[in-house]
Amino acid sequence: MTITLHMAWRNLWRHKRRTWLTVGAMIFSNLILIFSISLQFGSYRMMIDNSLKSYTGHMQIQRAGYNEEPKMRSSIEAIIPLADTVRTQLGLDSVAARGVAFAMTSSEQRSYGLQIIGVEPDFEPKVSTLPGLVTRGRYFDDSDAEEIVIGAVLARNLRVDVGDELTLLGSGYDGSFAAGIVRVVGIFESGIADIDRNMAQMPIGYFQTLFGLGDRGHNIVINAPDVLQLAPVQQSVREVLRGYDGLVVLDWEQLQPGLKQAIQADFTSAWFMYGVLIILVAFSVLNTQLMSVLERTREFGVMMALGVKPTRLGGLVITETAVMSALGLTIGAVLGIVMTAYLSQAGFSYPGMEDMAERFNLPERMYPSLSIASIMIGPSVVFLFSLLASIYPAVRLYFLQPIAAMRAV
Q: In which residue ranges of the chain is pLDDT below 50?
């Protein structure tokens, strides 16, 4: 094996330019793959955070069955004390209790049905971006105030502005008639038409009074410090809930399965582009090794005449490819890791991203997410396809006739 490896190394540098061109293609592809896959993982983290922090959160505590069939009666008793307990036990302030109801909302001119969310004014800004998207007026500062914050589309439809009053008509917890008058104190623009049209928020204290919930609510929203910490945080929440019957902890994949499917679809489609790059590198290796075999036909013929088996010659060709691929993998991985690690700390943005971030209350820079998976997936596939590309030149040696090979020019 040592002799084969020594010969493979020597043969590679017979044509330094051709070898370096092939290795350079591998280095470039490995660098691009590491950066692109890391950027994808980083964009998915950003997508998950941005999508979930607008309303859903990373996970929620609910009554079992509420997610499938949200009913007013599927509520959690003493929801605010429970949220306080979760905050204390987890050491997180990104925990907020909510109540959910539906009502008919009327202004002096029009009426619309919408979803009303009761929120904790002190903690809702830590689990949702909506409070930061209030463009007119203000957000809540009193948990019992008879106030409401609505979306910009709903405000246009109802023809109301900050300071106007709305009448709410709905059904209470016990089936009674829920009615109240609230003042519009803020108007938000999330950029998502359905939210801006169909959702409104009010302080949870008044929400519980209006809908006869007492101390009940419907879910507790929890945001982990980082997407990568979701599993341990979820396990910690389950431990807190051991003494509470009928409560479950649902993560974002259960709350928004469509988001997971969108990520999977995007990752699959991206691999079509990566596949083109990998195949081009594989053909480059195939061309290099095939030319190398053809140039050494007489040499291989002499070796076979001396008793060297075709199996060993084929192994030599594959070893040459493995050495060349390992060189490209090592250099490409090092360069890719250095570049990606720097950008994962410094971040980067493209023209127009800052304006979009300011409008939708999003981060101003993107950060690639460097991990073992993002480092190894791309280069490993390039290495594998390079070895596969060397099989054809190696197999040709099995059909080589020593006499005919030695006569080749």
A: none
